[in-house]
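for ur thesis appendix - DUF4402 domain-containing protein. copy paste whatever u need, i formatted it the way the template wanted (i think)
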Amino acid sequence: MFKRNQIQKSLVVAGVTLASFAAFSQQNETTTASVTVQNAFTLTEDAALSFGTITATVVSGTDGTLTVNPDGTQGQPAGGIRVLVPGTAASYTIAGAAPFTDLKINTNVDTVALINSTAPPGSPEFTLSAFQVTDGTVTESINSGASAFTAGDFQTDVGGTLTVGLGGTLTLPGGPAELLIDGNYEGNFTITVSY
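the 3d part is after this line
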């Protein structure tokens, strides 16, 4: 009986001792939670969209058209347009974005008037439309109402960089036969890139 009581007392003392060590072995560490916001990136125009040098005549009942594809190739001209010097696609570089991130690309308008600022009022003008963008692998149509975006289509690389080409179609509306006045025909539009 004496040994049993002694063993019980020893176990009680050992349990109290272990409980004391457990209470004294607690450690605390203050930690920090964080998040990095990276909304900013750069969008640079490397080359403007150019339809080259052409001859242009308004043809009765037939629209003249010329397409510069976003990969830089050029379609066959139609109507009263003939190519003298081929055009080039626009090129844009996005840099400083998050790596491997999908980007949306669109324009602020669906059509752009290209006007010769030295021509008299009422002179024929071109319309630019049917914008397309490519990253060299995927080509998407874009406009002001819909972004070129299917998950994974336009994605930055490991360095957060993406280069895209942009093309479109130039149209000279048909009408009474008329030669266009020589000079530069220009119009502006905005390309928007977002996460």
